[in-house]
């Protein structure tokens, strides 16, 4: 396939590099011209800085930009690429944001956390596709299967539920790691001592129902420990962490001991 990109950030970079293994990346346009040029050089594509330069001789345009920019970007390019399949990569944006502007619209959403520092195992990354036309859905399915063994044709509402769940499972849990590091850093304790615990917790969450393997003072309703921890946070002048600790502890108690 001949594929072009609007966007040169983390998602665009990982997808373009992955697609380039089996497909031709034609052009890259990004908000930051230097980033676009760097990515284009990495995948053998042409870097452009104006949407009028896009070639219409492509099979797919991937719009990998911020959610709030998707409609504006597609509005500017739709007429020029009227026959081209255009997809966004967002988990939380309804396909209607595209289809109300461009008739041949789709979604190609990888459920993964991206950073420039780490490579992605695409074979194990779930990919979620959606399209306004059956033929386009088949094209996206073929493209997704060239990367991953886990491909799902999900609706926008199903994809949104996954995105919300991912915020809890990934973004919020990572912030919990950040809070944990802040606590041990204050006492000059090595954060890496928590690595085995973090990995085992994540492993259990993938093998069992998370509710069934919940541990800790809140699920035991050990108020002596709960009060001691909150006192420690108060003494450390971390009322922000104390509030989060209280909210999460109360939620665990309600989840496991509520009569309803």
UniProtKB/TrEMBL annotation:
The keyword Chaperone does not apply. Pfam families: DUF2520, F420_oxidored. One of its GO terms (molecular function) is oxidoreductase activity. Residues 126-251 form the DUF2520 domain. Keywords: Oxidoreductase. It comes from the Bacteria. Residues 2-89 form the Pyrroline-5-carboxylate reductase catalytic N-terminal domain. This is DUF2520 domain-containing protein. It comes from Acinetobacter guerrae.
């Amino acid at each position: 396939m001949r594929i072009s990109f609007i966007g040169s950030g983390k998602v665009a970079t990982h997808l373009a590099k992955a697609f380039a293994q089996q497909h031709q990346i034609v052009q890259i346009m990004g908000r930051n011209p230097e980033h676009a040029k760097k990515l284009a050089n990495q995948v053998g594509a042409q870097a452009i800085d104006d949407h009028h330069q896009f070639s219409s001789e492509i099979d797919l345009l991937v719009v990998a930009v911020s959610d709030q920019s998707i409609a504006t970007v597609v509005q500017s390019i739709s007429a020029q690429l009227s026959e081209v399949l255009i997809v966004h990569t967002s988990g939380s944006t309804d396909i209607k944001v595209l289809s109300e502007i461009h008739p041949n619209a789709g979604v190609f959403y990888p459920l993964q956390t991206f950073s420039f520092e780490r490579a992605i195992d695409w074979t194990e990354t779930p990919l979620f596709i959606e399209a306004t036309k059956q033929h386009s859905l088949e094209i996206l399915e073929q493209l997704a299967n060239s990367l991953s063994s886990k491909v799902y044709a999900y609706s926008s509402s199903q994809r949104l539920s996954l995105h919300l769940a991912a915020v809890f499972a990934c973004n919020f849990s990572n912030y919990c790691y950040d809070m944990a590091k802040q606590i041990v850093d204050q006492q000059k304790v090595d954060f890496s001592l928590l690595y085995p615990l973090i990995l085992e917790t994540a492993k259990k969450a993938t093998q069992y129902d998370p509710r069934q393997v919940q541990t800790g003072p809140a699920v035991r309703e050990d108020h002596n420990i709960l009060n001691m921890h909150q006192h420690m946070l108060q003494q450390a002048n971390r009322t922000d962490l104390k509030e989060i600790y209280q909210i999460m502890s109360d939620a665990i108690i309600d989840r496991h001991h509520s009569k309803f």
